[in-house]
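# step 3/5: fold
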Amino acid sequence: MKLYQFDLAPASKRVNLFLAETGIEVPVVQLNVRDGDQFEEPYNSLNPFHCIPFLELADGTVISESIAICRFLEETNNASKKLFGKTSKESAIIEMWNRRLEIDGYIPLINGIRNKFERYEGKVLPGTRNDLPQVPAIAKRGIESCRILFERLNGHLNTTLHVAGEALSIADITGYEVVQLAIAIEMNFDEFGEVKAWHKKLDKRFKSYE
């Protein structure tokens, strides 16, 4: 089994945080996606989506997408910490929050960053090199979408220690990366005090793994 990563990528960071939290160990191969390693063989054939991370199993199966990778690793290892839930109810609530954080925050901000900053010219879609133009309005809409998410999350965090309950879950890891993306796109979210306090707590915890 091999995990192909680029540690600076938000999706790779989600997997790295999952591994740190669970203690699961996987051999890692670093690809420099900025130099286009993912378009070269054998990586091009292994993962035609050309996105990082992806997991190659011993039988040749390749799993891409960070959450799919984390779920597979949790279900095939005996780690005591279960970030996807221990019961059907817990799993459903975690999945609900993780999806909402992705739909309203993570994806809009990823698209926003790729349409705002010059360094992503020709790379507006992850895993591609093309001539699609950057559209600044997409960045603006990403921030607007995330602001609505933070309004809802801010009130919710008044009632719970973590996003999906009292225990840290994969939803907290996704939410943490949403805030990191909000910072990267230069979004001002000072009015969301609960979100900022929750992020600060996670930031201290996650940086202790470095």
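# step 4/5: annotate
The chain has two domains: 2-75, 88-207.
# step 5/5: archive (pending)
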